[in-house]
Design a protein that fits this description.
3 domains; 8-stranded antiparallel beta sheet; Proliferating Cell Nuclear Antigen; DNA Polymerase III, Chain A, domain 2; 6 helices; DNA replication (chains A, B); 25 strands; homodimer
């Protein structure tokens, strides 16, 4: 097996493969990247328990002299290619299990694992009609929802994002049971309907790969996995098993109090107030209070018996609906929600002091964020 | 006690005070910054077991309405001032132990500790003749030596940098007993001779403060502490007790092999080779080998039975003195040493395969770095 390739082309592809390498694994072979070097292209594969990635490399700057299949340590290979400053890198198998990597005056000999031990990855064959979606749009949906998924594994299904496709409408919902983010949009794709839960960790890795996309993404769905086709990249992830909770019924529909804010002004006031706020004992997040006074001024407040108090007066950015309200919640949830909106202006809709409140952005169509209040003593 | 001050002036001074706050302390009062508000100025004090800092604030943008002395939580105060975006901040004591901090529409009430509990700091009175030194020069000396001091407390004296002043000559030496860095320079100051060991941690904090210096630094030395006067700042640190080892005798004086290198080329070759190199069991650092061949080519090499080998050929940047040598050492020591030099060209002087080698920079006058080799099996 002998080939040479431009350092930059190889590095760009390895950075994608890296997303498929496991952090820790009982199966040492999974710490490698599988190189299937064929006559005129190379197929790279990496995988862990959640994700499998395959890239077809057939760039013009690839020169293959002899084909073969090897499994090279992912970590060491990526470290080396990153640090090398030559234009081209040459790979050649000198013994059954040693590969020589040459780059200008650097020479590395890496011991290999047996490529025959690499597990066969069963990528979906893509015969069904895919859902086609713009790469930036998909990246945006992930950004708007994935952060609201649960981190704790108490209810595993909540560590994923629920994607539903029904009659040209795509819904994406994530919740950790304290807050929820929901996005809804129309697509012109002709895919079959589906209702799946994708691990949010997988989506975060996918999101980084989407940056390099130059064309639309195709989604192929099966009962237990989903395949994303992005240019010459296959990105497949397992799905979470079980039924995703019906979140529609927890979203209030009537809002007696509606307050519009400038997002940045509200965000910095909330961040200042939470500097002193006490931690909620369940979530360890800082609890703050928001109060709409009868004169329609808004105060954001925190009290900490040991340290002190913080109080901010924030003016609504336009007319307020409703009279007074006094509600307490985790400042982190509001901060993260505000940051997920693109709009400079947002609106908070209150259903009552012990009911979830809903945030919408004036320019973020069909994005809805919900936060559960905590009880004020 | 009532005063107001520009937010930027206060923050700049608080950032200096922060260097004196302890990471952890059994004495809660030390987590505060002491504010002594006088008729026309404020004296700020912070201190921990090593360092004490005092700053005199008398900028034009300070308006004092009522004097007084308070001790305000350093962490919370700095967090608040950093996050506030108003131009001015107003402080007023409303009860014996509560201070109100107002900035535009933000209001913070902080509980105070009793300022009477703040320990009296005995700053050197500065009656002796100080050593005067340019702030950038002092910063440079710290940068060139402090990193070579020991981190481990096995031999506490080695966690400091030895500063000796003798007949207008200043020597600074640091060593962790595996490598050593030494700087020597002439000063025109008339101070008494001294021989002190300053904790390297204190020097690292001092170094950050030196960035703001607008004039020369004055050093006042006593048997157990040293005071640095920088503009309106007093920075005092305890000294390490005990005799610093005589390092002169371990520096070889005869070098049969001398190899000049381009610093950046050598550095990147060493960094690449150490990607695969095995760890030294004592220091946990990567061991690499440097070999001068009879044809005067230099090879840098590492072997790792599990992972593989790395080899780099580096051309000396000018004529080599001596014939062959083959020496092993910790790559991290060489990397850190090379980074401390300003010169683009450096010279490595070898005294023998089991003797320390010495690095000098062609443009770094009177800076010497020494590294102990490890035995090659």
């Amino acid at each position: 097996m002998t080939f040479s390739i431009s350092r930059d082309t190889l590095l760009n592809n390895l950075v994608i493969m890296q997303k498929g390498l496991p952090n820790r694994t009982p199966l040492p072979i999974l710490t490698t990247i599988k190189f299937e070097v064929r006559e005129d292209h190379i197929v790279l594969t990496s995988s862990n328990t959640d994700i499998a990635i395959q890239v077809l490399v057939d760039e013009d700057d690839l020169t293959i002299t002899k084909s073969g299949v090897v499994a090279i340590s992912g970590k060491y290979l990526i470290d080396i290619v990153r640090k090398v400053d030559s234009k081209r890198i040459e790979f050649s198998l000198i013994e059954d299990r040693i590969i020589v990597i040459k780059a200008d005056r650097s020479e590395f000999k890496l011991r290999l694992m047996d490529a025959n031990d690499y597990p066969e990855i069963d990528f979906l064959d893509g015969t069904t009609e895919p859902l086609t979606i713009d790469a930036d749009l998909l990246k945006n949906i992930i950004r708007e929802t994935s952060y609201a998924a649960a981190i704790s594994e108490k209810r595993p299904i909540l560590t994923g994002v629920n994607f539903k496709y029904n009659e040209n409408k795509l819904y994406a919902v994530a919740t950790d049971s304290y807050r929820l983010s929901q996005k809804e949009l129309k697509l012109r794709s002709k895919s079959d309907n589906f209702d799946i839960v994708i691990p949010s960790k997988s989506l975060d890795e996918l999101s980084k790969i989407l940056d390099t996309a130059t064309s639309d993404v195709h989604l192929y769905v099966s009962p237990n996995k989903v395949l994303f086709k992005i240019d010459n990249i296959l990105f497949q992830t397992r799905l979470l098993e079980g039924a995703y909770p019906n979140t529609v019924r927890i979203i209030p529909t009537e809002f007696p109090v509606v307050i519009p804010f400038n997002k940045e002004i509200l965000l910095s006031a909330v961040e200042r107030v939470s500097l002193l706020s006490p931690k909620d004992k369940d979530t360890n997040y800082n609890i703050i209070k928001l109060k709409l006074n009868s004169n329609h001024s808004v105060e954001i407040h925190s009290t900490n018996s040991e340290i002190g108090d913080a109080n901010e007066v924030v003016s609504p950015s336009a007319d307020v609906t409703g009279s007074v309200i006094n509600i307490a919640f985790s400042s982190r949830y509001l901060v993260e929600a505000l940051k997920s909106f693109n709009s400079p202006e947002i609106v908070i809709n209150f259903a009552g002091e012990v009911k979830p409140f809903v945030i919408k952005g004036t320019e973020d169509e069909n994005l809805l964020h919900l936060i559960l209040p905590v009880r004020i003593d």
